[in-house]
Design goal:
The protein contains twelve helices and 21 strands. The protein is an alpha/beta fold and 427 residues long. It folds into two domains: 159 residues, Lyase, Ornithine Decarboxylase, Chain A, domain 1 (Beta Barrel); 256 residues, Alanine racemase (TIM Barrel), CATH 3.20.20.10. Strand 14 and strand 15 form a beta hairpin. Helix 2 runs parallel beside helix 9, helix 5 packs across helix 6 and helix 8 runs parallel beside helix 9. The protein is elongated and about 70 Å long. Ligand LLP binds next to helix 10 and helix 11.
Length: 427
């Protein structure tokens, strides 16, 4: 958990005064602490990459992506997981090294496949037979050789919200582990001269606080690595174990350090490979939320405050479900503070409502707060992941901009949408 810094009753992030930023930029906006992103990247280097030579880490850009984020991730020496032409395009525009890009997706379009081949991305993670055949055809057409992994559905149930659990058998993602299925893929890929299979990928779920699903999946994958060696003489060089490492949102979360997951994964993999007489493949991790989640906050201004006598007090903000759909989508819980009243006792309770025409547009139920007044600055914590990335224009609310802070300096890296921007594609 990141400890909040304050100065004279004001919330400080990376040495910047949050109420002053609110006055300077106007609310709402996403505030992103670059120092924290870099700390997380350093932790990946120290506790995973340096410890396990040959391993790699790619940031899952679906969590939060903009040109500046690509530049930061490139500069931190990590790879990038993209899942669409739009994410790939952003990486290309930012000058991200394409050999470090991993291209995912369960239904890549022809245009996306052509783009991946054209830019010669580092890895394409192939999800299904339809994609495999079209990727081979496109690579042939462009006379390229593409490195690929097969995405495997390990059949492991992770203990998280069912909408963000992805590794279970009944899933739209990946190739099932049963021998006949995989045999077809292996037979096929061995004949494909423009594709080079390097290994396998799995992703079990997101916002996990326990490593048991990852470890179970590693055991299952070790069985597959052994089977493809025996049946096809195929030596697995790489295993991509996805992301999913949980973060702090509220006091209900007790996140583990990254090494709890990565050491557990590596230990299990080494043990499984040793007992089966296999070479240990190089491991890639793909954390998204863990890199960016706690680095982000959303800064709002409190507007109308409504007391329903004997029931509750609603404090409404100048944003809501369009900038953070997670409470209404996943029942996600958030904590927030009043950035201009950090020293005041939290002796009142308010439910933080958005401004949308929808009663479900509630960001936080029954939040302990100091005495509130319109104009107060609300900072919702841990909104770095899957907020900006999942934002919409519902009710025609323009998307907020992104302010990046580092070492006491602030800069706008994504400007807020204007009303005109929202009409820019309309005919
Ligand atoms: N790799 C793959 C193949 C993935 O599908 C995902 C996330 C990740 C890596 C990164 O997972 P992370 O480290 O961020 O947990 N919108 C949902 C989360 C969906 C995650 C989908 N896949 C949410 O707001 O909670």
């Amino acid at each position: 958990m990141v400890k909040l810094q304050t100065h004279q009753g004001h919330l400080q992030v990376a040495g910047c005064d949050v109420p002053e930023l609110a006055a300077k930029y106007g609310t709402p906006f996403y505030l992103v602490n670059q120092n924290l992103i870099e700390d997380r990247c350093k932790e990946i280097h120290a506790d995973f990459l340096a410890k396990y030579p040959g391993s790699r880490a790619a940031y899952a850009s679906k969590a939060f992506l903009c040109l500046e984020m690509c530049r930061i991730i490139a500069q931190q020496g990590l790879g990038l997981d993209v899942v669409s032409g739009g994410e790939l395009f952003t990486a290309v525009q930012a000058g991200f090294p394409m050999e470090r890009v991993i291209f995912h997706g369960n239904n890549k379009t022809d245009q996306e496949i052509a783009m991946a081949v054209d830019h010669q991305v580092g890895r394409v993670v192939v999800d299904n037979m339809y994609e495999l055949e079209r990727l081979q055809a496109e690579a042939g057409r462009q006379d390229r050789k593409m490195d690929i992994l097969f995405r495997i559905t390990p059949g492991v149930d992770s203990h998280t919200h069912k909408f963000i659990s992805t590794g279970q058998l009944d899933s739209k993602f990946g190739i099932p582990t049963d021998p006949e299925h995989l045999r077809d893929y292996m037979d096929k890929v061995m004949t494909m001269t423009n594709l080079r299979l390097l290994g396998f990928h799995f992703h079990v779920g997101s916002q996990l606080h326990a490593n048991d699903s990852h470890l179970k999946a590693v055991e299952i994958l070790a069985g597959i690595i052994q089977r493809v060696k025996e049946e096809h003489g195929f030596i697995t060089e790489e295993l991509n174990v996805g992301g999913g490492y949980g973060i702090y949102y509220t006091d209900e979360d007790e996140p583990e350090p990254l090494s709890y997951f990565t050491d557990g994964i590596m230990e299990t993999l080494h043990k499984e490979c040793a007992s089966r007489g296999l070479n240990v493949p190089a491991v890639t991790i793909e954390p998204g939320r863990w890199v960016i989640g706690e680095a982000g906050m959303t800064i709002y201004t409190i507007g109308s405050i409504k007391e329903v006598p004997g029931i509750r007090t609603y404090a409404a903000v100048d944003g809501g479900m369009p900038d953070n759909p997670r409470p209404s989508l996943y029942d996600a819980k958030y904590d927030a503070v009043i950035a201009n009243k950090m020293d005041a006792p939290r002796d009142a309770v308010a439910t933080i409502a958005g401004k949308c025409c929808e009663s479900g547009d509630i960001l936080i139920w029954d939040l302990p707060v100091p005495q509130l007044a319109p104009g107060d600055t609300l900072a919702v914590r841990s909104t770095g992941a899957y907020n900006f990335a999942m934002a919409s224009n519902y009710n025609r609310l323009p998307r907020p901009g992104v302010v990046m802070v580092k070492n006491g300096l602030d800069r706008l890296v994504v400007r807020p949408q204007s009303y005109q921007d929202m009409l820019s594609t309309e005919i």
